[in-house]
Every structure is written in structure tokens, then in C-alpha cells.
């Protein structure tokens, strides 16, 4: 297997790294501290093409491959996982659904603006009583003539206050369970949609997360995405890419924590020598580095399968599971090896540790990933 990058992939990685150093690093700690959405970053990220991975050039996208996408995501997440989440919401969760399931009028009207950063998309699946259990959805969509009327509440919606395009999963036939779930497009400004206040979270504070409520929200029937009853299938195939994106974010967090720890342990002098000279510290760093490299191979494999047009549900779940747990493992050791300084905001590992925890929860918990993997293995 050839693990070398193409010239284009190397160029993209370098461009993103330079962009992050210039535009993201200066505000990363501040947006976390102030719980502030980085609105000033949206247009520059879009101008660099970061909202156009794996999308057709006809809409203004770069059509860069999935490996380039995970490379870019890792580089961004090393400095700000919140920025990486915003990009993932566009490239993995919302634009691909419109591209595959919306009618031509919607695609031509919305996708170019989403790629250019003028419109942000939000994926609305989770509910207060329906996280991993999609069949427990309570949001409903009732057909009335040439419209649908949506009622219900969605939870944990990334970038909702800045969102313009909401992909909403709702029940059109509760008697059918998951086969009664349908996907819809709801646009900002539609009467009946209300955005809640941002949640007070442990980390990822630059990526606002809110509830979104629908009260007699009337949309045209042409906003149906796919067919009635296809919503669960649409959501699950979307999460394959979403989990790959989450894995790349986790990888970036882990690599950043490893890099910071290597630097710190070489500089920190105790008992007359750098703490990196102690065998116990070396073993911890060796374990951290090994897990990061294993995580990277799993992400790259999932991306390579996507680029080849192959199924990658199992591989995406494996990557998400392992990378998330690696992010927690590495950031935990990073804080420990920084000692008391690791528990302060003076060093980045404190923030990386808080951000890493979410990776074991969003886009399906680690427990759900194990269920997905086991189903593929056992048949």
C-alpha cells in the first residue's frame, strides 16, 4: 500500500497549514474562552476552498478528494477543532445531502452559496429524547396539499445561529419506525423555526451548539429531500462521511497534544535534566506516538475507500472509534506530563483535553461505533 501523498494533496496540506497559522491560531484560545463563533473565519475558509471538498466544480467547488479533506481537517483541528467542526458540517453533513437528494432548482440556488461561505448548513437529527435511538424521533412532518407542516425540537445543532440551510429529519409515518423518517430542507427565515441559546459546553466553544425548534413550520413539498421514508437511510449514509470527519478532527487533536508534549518534556528541567530523559516519560510518549500513527492509518483507509467509490461504513466507524479514544488517551497523558501547568490555560493541552472528550460522543458515541462495527463483522 502506498502511503505517499500526491503533489496536489501535499499542496493542499501545506496551504491549509499556512492558513491556519496566519488566520486561526491567533484567535483559537480567544474564541474558546469567550464562547464566540468565529464569524470572521468563514469567508477566508471558503475562499481557500475548505467548504468544497469532494464536491463538483460546477458549483464552484474544488472537487478535491476525501484524503485531501481529512488532511485539511487534521491541520485545522490541530489548532482549532471548532473551526474543523464548522467545515465538517458543510462538507460531510449538509451539502452532500442537497447534492444527491434535492431538486435541481434547490441545488443551483443553494449549493454555490454554501461553498462560497455565504450560507452555512446545519444537520438536524438529534432530539431531546432521540440521540442514538433515531426511531424515537418526535419531530413530525404532515403533508397538507403542496406543503409539509413540521413540528418538533432538535438538539445539539452545530452553528445553528449562523445557519441558513437546515437539513431536518422528521417522522412522516410513526407507525413505520425508522422507515417513517423523511428528510427535508428548511431555510432560514421560514416562519415557525426558532434557534435556541448556545449551550454552555465543556469545550468546542467556538462552535455554537443550539436547540432548533419548529412550530407549525410550513415548507413547500418541493423541499422534500429524496422520498418519504428515505430519511433514516440518508442520515446513516451521511454519518459515514461525518464519522470520517470526526476521526480526522480527533487525529488533529491527538497530534497537536503529542507535539506540545514532546516540546514541553524536552524543555522542562527537573533534577538537573529534561524530563524527556526519563524512561517513564519516554514510554508514555512512545505509546502516544504509536496510537496517533495507528489512528492516522485508519482515517486514511476510510478516505481512500470513499475516493475509490467503495463502501466504508465499517472502516469509518472504526476510524471514528479509535481516533476518538486515541484523542482522549493522548490528551490525558499530555496534561499529566505537563504537570501543574497542564491544568492551566497557559498551555494548549488543557483546551485540547476538553475538546477531545466530545469526539467520543458526537456523531455516535464510542459505544454506538462498537455496535456498528460488530454488525459488519458478525453479518
TrEMBL record:
Where the record annotates domain Acyl-CoA dehydrogenase/oxidase N-terminal, the positions are 6-118
A Pfam family this chain is assigned to: Acyl-CoA_dh_N
Q: Which InterPro entries does this entry report, sorted A to Z? A: Acyl-CoA_Oxase/DH_mid-dom, Acyl-CoA_Oxase/DH_mid-dom_sf, AcylCo_DH-like_C, AcylCo_DH/oxidase_C, AcylCoA_DH/ox_N, AcylCoA_DH/ox_N_sf, AcylCoA_DH/oxidase_NM_dom_sf
What is this enzyme's class at the first EC digit? oxidoreductase
| Quaternary structure and interacting proteins, as annotated | Homotetramer.
Query: What name is this protein filed under?
Result: Cyclohex-1-ene-1-carbonyl-CoA dehydrogenase
Acyl-CoA dehydrogenase/oxidase C-terminal domain span: 229-378
The family assignment reads: Belongs to the acyl-CoA dehydrogenase family.
Q: Which GO terms describe its molecular function?
A: acyl-CoA dehydrogenase activity; flavin adenine dinucleotide binding
Q: Give cofactor(s), names only.
A: FAD
On whether Ligase is a keyword of this UniProt record, the answer is: no
Q: Answer whether the UniProt record assigns the keyword Oxidoreductase to this protein.
A: yes
Amino acid at each position: 500500500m502506498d502511503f505517499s501523498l500526491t503533489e496536489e494533496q501535499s499542496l493542499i496540506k501545506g496551504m491549509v497549514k499556512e492558513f491556519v497559522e496566519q488566520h486561526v491560531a491567533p484567535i483559537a484560545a480567544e474564541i474558546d474562552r469567550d464562547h464566540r463563533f468565529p464569524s470572521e473565519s468563514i469567508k477566508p475558509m471558503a475562499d481557500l476552498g475548505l467548504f468544497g471538498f469532494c464536491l463538483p466544480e460546477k458549483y464552484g467547488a474544488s472537487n478535491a478528494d476525501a484524503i485531501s479533506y481529512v488532511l485539511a481537517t487534521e491541520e485545522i483541528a490541530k489548532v482549532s477543532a471548532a473551526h474543523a467542526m464548522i467545515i465538517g458540517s458543510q462538507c460531510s453533513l449538509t451539502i452532500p445531502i442537497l447534492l444527491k437528494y434535492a431538486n435541481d432548482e434547490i441545488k443551483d440556488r443553494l449549493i454555490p452559496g454554501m461553498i462560497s461561505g455565504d450560507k452555512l448548513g446545519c444537520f438536524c437529527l438529534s432530539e431531546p429524547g432521540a440521540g442514538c435511538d433515531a426511531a424515537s424521533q418526535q419531530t413530525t412532518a404532515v403533508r397538507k396539499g403542496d406543503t409539509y407542516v413540521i413540528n418538533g425540537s432538535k438538539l445539539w445543532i452545530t452553528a445553528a445561529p449562523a445557519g441558513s440551510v437546515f437539513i431536518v429529519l422528521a417522522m412522516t409515518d410513526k407507525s413505520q419506525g425508522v422507515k417513517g423518517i423523511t428528510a427535508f430542507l428548511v431555510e432560514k427565515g421560514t416562519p415557525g423555526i426558532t434557534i435556541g441559546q448556545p449551550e454552555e459546553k465543556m469545550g468546542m466553544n467556538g462552535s455554537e451548539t443550539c436547540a432548533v425548534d419548529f412550530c407549525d413550520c410550513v415548507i413547500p413539498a418541493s423541499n422534500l429531500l429524496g422520498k418519504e421514508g428515505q430519511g433514516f437511510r440518508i442520515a446513516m449514509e451521511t454519518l459515514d462521511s461525518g464519522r470520517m470527519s470526526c476521526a480526522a478532527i480527533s487525529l488533529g487533536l491527538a497530534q497537536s497534544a503529542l507535539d506540545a508534549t514532546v516540546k514541553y518534556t524536552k524543555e522542562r528541567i527537573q533534577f538537573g535534566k529534561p524530563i524527556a530523559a526519563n524512561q517513564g516519560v519516554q514510554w508514555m510518549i512512545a505509546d502516544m506516538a504509536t496510537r496517533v500513527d495507528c489512528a492516522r492509518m485508519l482515517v486514511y483507509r476510510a478516505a481512500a475507500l470513499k475516493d475509490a467509490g467503495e463502501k466504508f461504513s465499517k472502516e469509518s466507524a472504526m476510524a471514528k472509534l479509535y481516533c476518538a479514544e486515541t484523542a482522549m488517551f493522548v490528551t490525558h497523558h499530555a496534561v499529566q506530563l505537563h504537570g501543574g501547568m497542564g491544568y492551566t490555560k497557559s498551555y494548549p493541552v488543557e483546551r485540547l483535553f476538553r475538546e477531545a472528550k466530545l469526539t467520543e460522543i458526537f456523531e455516535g458515541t464510542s459505544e454506538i461505533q462498537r455496535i456498528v462495527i460488530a454488525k459488519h463483522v458478525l453479518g
